[in-house]
Amino acid sequence: MPEGDTVWQTAQRLHTALAGHALTRFDLRVPRFATADLTDRTVLDVTPRGKHVLTRIEGGLTLHSHLRMDGSWQVYGPGERWRGGPTHQIRAILGNAAHTAVGYRLPVLELLRTADEEQAVGHLGPDLLGPDWDPGTALANLLADPARPLGEALIDQRNLAGIGNVYKSELAFLARATPWLPIGELPAGIPERLVSTAHRLLEANKNRPDRRTTATARGTTTGRQPGPRLHVYGREGLPCLRCGTPVSKADQGDGSRERPTYWCPQCQSGPTARSH
Known about the structure:
Number of domains: 2
Strand content: 15-25%
Number of strands: 10
CATH topology of the largest domain: Helicase, Ruva Protein, domain 3
Mean pLDDT: 93
Radius of gyration: 20 Å
Oligomer: single chain
Shape: elongated
Strand order of the largest sheet: 1-6-7-5
Low-confidence stretches: 216-223
Order of helices and strands: HEEEEEEEEHHHHHEE
């Protein structure tokens, strides 16, 4: 699943290509909205909200999309070959004289009134990359269920919006706690530090081509520093960057979906997938 910084970058690309221009093509390939035609209307802006993308269009309408695991938006110039996937995976095409935005494999795609956007995103907690970011509210949301495993609490978009599988694993590592440790059992001060670190990491990475959580916030924005970019995510069996112990991997979920989770069994204290 894309992280909040990836969705932010997607929205920025769409905004640059579409905002301020009249649509010359508008094609939604989902049955409910297949007959909608917004050509000649101007795209006003494209705004990310957590992991959602809101494309606001003249006339009080918003195209709401969510990438989930496999969806993507690609932007192409005139005559450029579309490379985002086979034609049957295209769900949306928004074009103007200079650019065409193509949405592939979008599991959520709906046209709604801009005044009704809260129906789609009103359940979200504070957006880590949004103007509504509120660390106090995010902290209170996380601590509202102290028995909940840390990883599940972090990835719940109702608590704070923007954390996916990558940041879940990386934040737990930086907190020296396993993702299965009940969040209420974290040492004093650690929950507050988690919230501030999550915000710092996403802010540091929103303009980077390659996400980095190791030696982050003070580096350049190129993402080209040497060495591993992540502490544990995607590094199963490789030595922990802190202690050298092989990194472990297991699935973690709340019963509705299992998510890949990485941790160091030496550096991170608390229950694990095998003991939970």
